[in-house]
Amino acid sequence: MSSKAVLNKRWQSGEHGLAIERLPAKESFKSKAYAALKEAITNMNIYGSSEPLLLDERDISERLGASRTPIREAVAMLEQEGLLRAVPRRGILVVRRSKAEIVEMIEAWAALESMAARLAAQRASDEAIAELRMFFKEFDLSRIERDRCDEYSTANIAFHQALIRLSGSKLLEAMTENLFFHVRAIRHRTIFEMDRAQRSASDHLEIILAIEARDADRAERLVRDHTFRLARYVENHVDLD
């Protein structure tokens, strides 16, 4: 056997390098449980009530059709992300943030999303930018009807996610991922209040026009101001503590 073949064999065996083993089958179950559970709690209206939001491990296991071991592992991962907290003898608590924490998160989101808007105006294709209008094609943006606020809230949240993606920055997507959990929830709660849906619709149209015109400065400013208005609204009108 040649010296090169011997060296390759040693590397493959882990003698001189990375000793790696096949992932156990349960790893895929943990990942699937994590993804399903994270999606489910992301879609919860966590600020719609002041009552604690407690999840039951056994119920989750039955709903997902998985054993409780990958569920516990998924919960541990979501605890590390600050989304859940296991409470002895009570269950799994969905974590809410204080008003001050929420305001800080929204302000951080404003900085990240406004940069995403700038990058979108500079980098995104015309076809990708055109898709921003599709979120609101079923609405008359000059008049958001009260009985369509739920539908509009869903479109609103999808629009803000799309802005981040249009930046083309995977780092921005990663940095906003866990902020999104709480910012999404507070957007959904407040969109129904004090005619905010109508103001939101007007802002979105201006943002789209700025990005379509490739006006990066204006797009960045409009998105930042739009999100800062949410922060000030939460500060002055929302009771979370």
From TrEMBL:
Q: Which GO terms describe its molecular function?
A: DNA binding; DNA-binding transcription factor activity
Question: Would you say which domain of life the source belongs to?
Answer: Bacteria
Q: Which residue intervals define the domain HTH gntR-type in the entry? A: 27-97
Looking up PROSITE patterns in the UniProt record yields: HTH_GNTR (PS50949)
Does the keyword Transcription regulation feature in the UniProt annotation?
Answer: yes
Q: Which PANTHER family match?
A: TRANSCRIPTIONAL REGULATOR, GNTR FAMILY (PTHR43537), TRANSCRIPTIONAL REGULATORY PROTEIN (PTHR43537:SF49)
What is this protein identified as? GntR family transcriptional regulator
Identify the species of origin: Ancylobacter mangrovi
List the top taxonomic levels of the source: Bacteria, Pseudomonadati, Pseudomonadota, Alphaproteobacteria, Hyphomicrobiales
